[in-house]
């Protein structure tokens, strides 16, 4: 299952945006309003949203100022969340989130709407950093 957000503009430099996103503590500011839990542990964080199981994401890859990849810590859920950054100007960056999950069709049908809402909330909140 592949999902992507619309391109958003962040009024910060590419480097500032990248540094913000590679500090996992900052993801708490990007979480949707229905966040019930958020804890950072090294290169990973765990979060819980109302009506969803808790999920741990691990920082898997970071390409300075261009790309950040987070992945599921559990082998039961095989997915990644990629954030691609592009410098628009000295003080402006565009960002887009891509979710790529390996789910069976039944699971994909059940999680598509909540996941779409989740990554769109992250993307929308990213505009306000």
TrEMBL record:
This is Carbon monoxide dehydrogenase subunit G. SUPFAM superfamilies: Bet v1-like. The lineage of its organism: Bacteria, Pseudomonadati, Bacteroidota, Flavobacteriia, Flavobacteriales. It comes from the Bacteria.
